[in-house]
Amino acid sequence: MERIDGAPWVGTSWKMTKTLAEGREFARGLAEALAAEPRLRERVRPFVIPPHTALAAVAAELEGSGVVVGAQNAHWEDAGAWTGEVSVPQVADAGAALVEIGHSERREHFGETVETTAAKVAATLRHGLTPLLCVGEPAEVRDAGGSAEHILAQVRGALDGLSEEELGRVLVAYEPIWAIGEHGRPATVPELEAPFAALQGEFGSRTAAILYGGSVHQDNAAELLAMDDVDGLFVGRAAWRLEGYLELLRLAAG
Ligand code: 13P
């Protein structure tokens, strides 16, 4: 079965939710649904990013399903005395093919910087995994008209020095901080036009894809995916129930 060129990426990070049993159940149901609806696999690139604790189990359930499994974070060093951290070779060993890097929650609460995101992107590429680099600006920056410059600086800093071949393996997710989570509100299509034009203008043809994330729901997914500059969606809450995620995949499949 061939996936059509340019099929949108539609993925979810579970953040710090789900037990091992819940993760397995979701993954098993997803694999069954994709087997029953091959159209979804042809027309969408699904990815699921469980917490580290469920990574191996979810990857095992989703083997051969066409779903890319990712880790929510990984350290830039391959091994060593970094208590509490997990390396790229370790998440690869557990079944991850993708590593999420620089989510705003990690930048805000865990000291992620442009320098650490750059080191993590490099480590991820070095081991042949796909980096999913997340960038986004706070509301004050948006209000001051600085969104595009802010996110371009984050992307430039994280991808500085990569070869064109390496750049071509990077996924970028634009997730305005003010749009993420319970206290966020979804960005509107007009609000996204300038930031996406800036990202696509500088990185669109050089990176693998540029996704949108932040309060994506079943009722705004179609209009976001209809934007020429949006290559996919990165979803939190609206995809944490399997039915919700399947609904988004079906919307994206058209
Ligand atoms: P929500 O979809 O819950 O706003 O989260 C988005 C996000 O942070 C995905 O990384």
Automatic annotation (TrEMBL):
UniProt-listed InterPro entries: Aldolase_TIM, TIM_sf, Triosephosphate_isomerase
EC number(s) of the enzyme? 5.3.1.1
A single GO molecular function term of this UniProt record: isomerase activity
Recorded coiled-coil stretches: none
Cite the entry's keywords alphabetically: Cytoplasm, Gluconeogenesis, Glycolysis, Isomerase
Give compartment(s): Cytoplasm
The annotated pathway is:
Carbohydrate biosynthesis; gluconeogenesis; Carbohydrate degradation; glycolysis; D-glyceraldehyde 3-phosphate from glycerone phosphate: step 1/1
Q: Which reaction does it catalyse?
A: D-glyceraldehyde 3-phosphate = dihydroxyacetone phosphate
Superkingdom field? Bacteria
Q: Keyword Transport: yes or no? A: no
Subunit structure comment from the entry = Homodimer.
Family according to the record:
Belongs to the triosephosphate isomerase family.
State the protein's name.
Answer: Triosephosphate isomerase
Q: What is the lineage of its organism?
A: Bacteria, Bacillati, Actinomycetota, Actinomycetes, Micrococcales
